[in-house]
What does this fold into?
Amino acid sequence: MIQSSSSQDSDRPFVSVRFTTFVTGTLCLPFLGLISCIFISVFFHFEDATKTHCQVPNYLPSISASIGLTPERYIWRFCIGLHSAPRFLMAVAYFTFYHGRLTNNCLVELLSYLNLTCAFSENIGLLLLTYVSSNETHSIHKKGFVVFTGSALIHMLITCLLWRAIKMYSMSHELLKSYWWKRRLCVSSVILCAAASGFYWKHNKFCEPGIYTLFALCEYLMVFCNMAFHLTAFWDFGHTDVTLAAPQELKLI
It folds into this structure.
């Protein structure tokens, strides 16, 4: 249950945390998990993590390589497994947020539903590529990665359109700051995705040394931009609590 910190509820609160704490903790899980996997891959499994079919020198592992080795895969799966349920909750919170601020507009309502669908498919794609590593079933892992990346970019674009519509009415200083960062992170993600795709194609086509390293670097930055984009919820729900409540017992008289 998500409620304003000043609202009263008839249910008895079991756990209540600030949304800022909730979203920060949620996004720290994949951030720390990814950093840990890359660190372990580079310092302990460098040869296995950086080798490709081209057999040319590379200096950074791709994310798929980093999370596909042991124990990296278990660290990543643990972090993503814990963070997935809160991410679904955040998607529903935003859907409610848009419906509370943008009404009587069929196009905006359609975009809010599409945005919710993309948020869900992004999370599902992330779970798929996480729990099916590239070393196990490469084709399924690849499809999960495509679903995750495509859904994430579409979700960012639709979110920016919805926030542009909100800006036409009124925004607080915090919401304007959030919108400012959303736009820049969205543009950065699109550029990085295009660059990563180009380096990936060039690596497979020409097998040049170091090109796969540039692909991996763009991939890291794109994922970090995605995390930062979701972290803007820190400003959007700054005065909101996340409460787990137990309903009152019914008494028959």
Notes: Residues 4-9 have pLDDT under 50 and may be disordered. The beta strands are 2-4, 12-18, 240-246. The two ends are 29 Å apart (CA to CA).
